[in-house]
Design a protein that fits this description.
By secondary structure, the chain is mainly alpha-helical. The chain contains three helices and no strands. Helix content is 81%, strand content 0%. The longest helix has 93 residues, at 2-94.
Length: 207
């Protein structure tokens, strides 16, 4: 019975070890799943954040471009008002026809007004060119920033290698070993019995 008890103890120890091994494997699998879920959630959050920042960049550029367009319209309106003023002045000067001096003065005034109008057109053109360059520069900067933001989420989350499922459990005691021990114990017991038993009672008959 001692061999049976030892066998049962060994079985219990092996079972306890195997439960621990199985629990550890389950914990590794569970942690792997949690890490994947966390990685996916964090990537999705990053995508949302990048989308919001890209929208903000686009909105900021649109606002800047609109302000430049309004400023351009204001410059054109100011030019038109100033040009109409000069045209009116030119028409007023052209009506002067008294004496050579007046005619000479009118020509000089017309030339001056012409120069002013040409300068106004030149200034308006330069302002429009500068405004266009500013808008193009802002557009390139916004595009570069959006590309930079996109690069942060260009590579989706990828799960790492899964834990190995090749789990090695502890082998319990052999049943054949138990049988051999029981047979050996029986033989030893019989031998001991024969040593003390009368000849008529000995196992296997008298010697």
């Amino acid at each position: 019975m001692g061999a049976i008890g030892a066998h049962q103890d060994a079985q219990a120890q092996a079972a306890a070890q195997n439960r621990g091994i199985a629990n550890q494997a389950n914990q590794r699998n569970r942690q792997y799943e949690l890490d994947n879920l966390r990685g996916i959630a964090e990537y999705n959050q990053d995508v949302m954040d990048v989308g919001r920042e890209q929208d903000a960049q686009a909105l900021a550029f649109a606002g800047f471009a609109a302000e430049e367009e309004l400023a351009k319209d204001d410059r054109i309106n100011q030019y038109l008002v100033a040009d109409q003023t000069l045209v009116a002045k030119l028409l007023g000067e052209s009506s002067v026809k008294e004496g050579g001096r007046s005619r000479s003065y009118g020509k000089n005034a017309a030339k001056e007004i012409g120069r002013q109008r040409a300068m106004m057109v030149s200034n308006l053109t330069r302002s429009d060119i500068a405004s266009k360059r500013n808008v193009d520069k802002a557009r390139k900067s916004a595009d570069a920033q959006r590309q930079k933001l996109f690069a942060q989420v260009a590579t989706p989350f990828r799960a790492g290698p899964a834990p190995s499922q090749n789990i090695e459990f502890v082998k319990g005691p052999s049943k054949l070993g138990l049988a051999a021990n029981l047979v050996g114990a029986a033989v030893d017991g019989a031998s001991t019995y024969n040593n003390f038993a009368p000849d008529a009672k000995r196992i296997g008959g008298p010697r």
